[in-house]
């Protein structure tokens, strides 16, 4: 009997251990996800603050200064204010579409962060389809915009939603073709492999030098996909009040706001990953680089440095697009579509054929 | 990278990221004041009474662009597997892909000439 009880206890404790292990396993999966979401949120706050400060600098104003030191907490204060605002639903609109629209556009953009390598093998999930996941999922976002434009039952919103959809499908194809040339060069769609393929020769190994045309096309079309100012036709204030956001207030407007900055951030991250060698130290023949190579494989230190490098390159592009917003005038709708279909599309196709032929010679 | 299989983390991430808007809606539902009025809930039309519905006919141009988009999007999706297997497939498949792209280029030139890519 004694043996029996001990056996039962053993079995019990074994089961408890197993369930504990499972709990740990789930936590182990969830922890990086929460860290990533937290990191994304903080960077969105940082971008909003940066945009305000840079625009103030360009327009010779002071910019935010009261909320926190140098106005760092301004974005947080704005977000909290939006939470406290009444969220109106237009009486004649479609309530379901009206609510689902902003949610879809936020979710579809957040999911793309799954495949971003912030450091050497420091990625949430190294999927084989990598970049393709970004392309396919980011094209869900215009459906959300179309839904919100349609669900508002407002002429401005409807036109804005249509324009948003037309614009993002027009610029999607040059973007996809550029990514195609990149994946052809590195023979993989996985973002980790793409970064690895650029790690040789430091600065000169970047895809930027092998794909200069693709880089420019990618930059322009990702700016257009973000609906940033030279291409912000869907929410052109002078024509469409605020486009598909016209009827939105409170936190739903906040979701659109967050979505646009998330989109900007992920585009800059992808420019970094695809063309600027991601997290590589990027200076060839440097004495220190060997030291980094040693620490890279193991330590927290190497990962931190990697993340720092990635973010530095990313914020460079964020700075570029913010400056472009406050210096360039807006295009007209026909100019926008002409640029997309009659200029960028043939050029990116030509770039693809050029890349394949040069690869063919090196085969 | 972790214990679970590749795409499980995708689903976990999908669930967590869809919690974000839901949480935002709930928190704002608790915190935000509610005061309804007929004027307040009418849709905005530059300050005047909204005239008719917004769900009406719109330009056919949007459809034209969508059609051309579908053609090219399917093309790029077909080109992706070829690009990944480029090393193995070699020259003969390159020529096939070239013919495929050429047909589409002819199609786009046709659409261009017919004015499908004109906005006005």
TrEMBL record, chain A:
Q: Which GO terms describe its molecular function?
A: NADH dehydrogenase activity; oxidoreductase activity, acting on NAD(P)H, quinone or similar compound as acceptor; quinone binding
UniProt catalytic activity: a plastoquinone + NADH + (n+1) H(+)(in) = a plastoquinol + NAD(+) + n H(+)(out); a plastoquinone + NADPH + (n+1) H(+)(in) = a plastoquinol + NADP(+) + n H(+)(out)
Transmembrane feature ranges: 26-50, 97-119, 131-150, 255-277, 297-322, 343-361
The GO cellular component terms are: chloroplast thylakoid membrane; plasma membrane
Q: Which UniProt keywords apply?
A: Chloroplast, Membrane, NAD, NADP, Plastid, Plastoquinone, Quinone, Thylakoid, Translocase, Transmembrane, Transmembrane helix
Q: How does it sit in the membrane?
A: Multi-pass membrane protein
Member of which family? Answer: Belongs to the complex I subunit 1 family.
Subunit structure as annotated in this protein's UniProt entry: NDH is composed of at least 16 different subunits, 5 of which are encoded in the nucleus.
Designated name of the protein:
NAD(P)H-quinone oxidoreductase subunit 1, chloroplastic
What organism is listed for this UniProt entry?
A: Stylosanthes hamata (Caribbean stylo)
UniProt lists the gene as ndhA
TrEMBL record, chain B:
GO terms for molecular function, please? NADH dehydrogenase (ubiquinone) activity; oxidoreductase activity, acting on NAD(P)H, quinone or similar compound as acceptor; quinone binding
Alphabetical UniProt keywords: Chloroplast, Membrane, NAD, NADP, Plastid, Plastoquinone, Quinone, Thylakoid, Translocase, Transmembrane, Transmembrane helix, Transport
InterPro entries (UniProt xref): NAD(P)H_OxRDtase_bac/plastid, NADH_UbQ/plastoQ_OxRdtase_su3, NDAH_ubi_oxred_su3_sf
List where the protein spans the membrane: 12-34, 62-82, 88-112
Give the Enzyme Commission number: 7.1.1.-
GO cellular component annotations of the record: chloroplast thylakoid membrane; mitochondrial membrane; NADH dehydrogenase complex
Matching Gene3D superfamilies: NADH:ubiquinone/plastoquinone oxidoreductase, chain 3
* UniProt keyword Plastid, yes or no: yes
Question: Mind telling me what this protein is named?
Answer: NAD(P)H-quinone oxidoreductase subunit 3, chloroplastic
Species this protein is from: Stylosanthes hamata
Report the gene name: ndhC
């Amino acid at each position: 009997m004694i043996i029996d009880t001990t056996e039962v206890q053993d079995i019990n404790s074994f089961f408890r251990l197993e369930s504990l292990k499972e709990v740990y396993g789930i936590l182990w999966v969830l922890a990086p996800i929460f860290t990533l979401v937290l990191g994304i949120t903080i960077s969105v706050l940082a971008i909003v603050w940066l945009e305000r400060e840079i625009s103030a600098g360009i327009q010779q104003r002071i910019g935010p200064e009261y909320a926190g030191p140098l106005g760092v907490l301004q974005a947080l204060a704005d977000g909290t204010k939006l939470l406290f605002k009444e969220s109106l639903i237009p009486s004649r609109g479609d309530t379901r579409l009206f609510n689902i629209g902003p949610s879809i556009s936020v979710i579809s953009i957040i999911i793309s962060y799954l495949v971003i390598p912030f450091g050497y093998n420091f990625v949430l999930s190294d999927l084989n389809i990598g970049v393709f996941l970004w392309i396919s999922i980011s094209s869900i976002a215009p459906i959300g915009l179309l839904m919100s434009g349609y669900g508002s039952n407002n002429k401005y919103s409807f036109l804005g939603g249509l324009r948003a959809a037309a614009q993002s499908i027009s610029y999607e194809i040059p973007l996809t073709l550029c990514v195609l040339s990149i994946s052809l060069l590195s023979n993989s769609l996985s973002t980790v492999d793409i970064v690895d393929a650029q790690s040789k020769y430091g600065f000169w190994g970047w895809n930027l030098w092998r794909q200069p045309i693709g880089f420019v096309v990618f930059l322009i079309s990702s700016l257009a996909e973000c609906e940033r100012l030279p291409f912000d036709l869907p929410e052109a204030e002078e024509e469409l009040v605020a486009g598909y956001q016209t009827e939105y207030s409170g936190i739903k407007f906040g979701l659109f706001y967050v979505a646009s900055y998330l989109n900007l951030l992920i585009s800059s991250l992808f420019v970094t990953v695809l063309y600027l060698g991601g997290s590589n130290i990027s200076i060839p023949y440097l004495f220190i680089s060997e030291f980094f190579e040693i620490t890279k494989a193991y330590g927290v230190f190497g990962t931190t440095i990697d993340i720092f490098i990635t973010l530095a390159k990313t914020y460079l592009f964020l700075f570029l697009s913010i400056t472009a917003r406050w210096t360039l005038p807006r295009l007209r709708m026909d100019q926008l579509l002409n640029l997309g279909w009659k200029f960028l599309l043939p050029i990116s196709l030509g770039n693809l054929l050029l890349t394949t032929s040069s690869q063919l010679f090196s085969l | 990278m972790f214990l679970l299989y590749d795409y499980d983390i995708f689903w976990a991430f999908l669930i967590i990221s869809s919690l974000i808007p839901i949480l935002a809606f709930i928190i704002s539902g608790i915190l935000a004041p509610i005061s309804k009025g007929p004027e307040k809930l009418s849709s905005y039309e530059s300050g005047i009474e909204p005239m008719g519905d917004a769900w009406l006919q719109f330009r056919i141009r949007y459809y034209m662009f969508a059609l051309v988009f579908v053609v090219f999007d399917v093309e790029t999706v077909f080109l992706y597997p070829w690009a990944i297997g480029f090393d193995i497939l070699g020259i003969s498949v390159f020529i096939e892909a070239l013919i495929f792209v050429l047909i589409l280029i002819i199609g786009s030139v046709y659409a261009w000439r017919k004015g499908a890519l004109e906005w006005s």
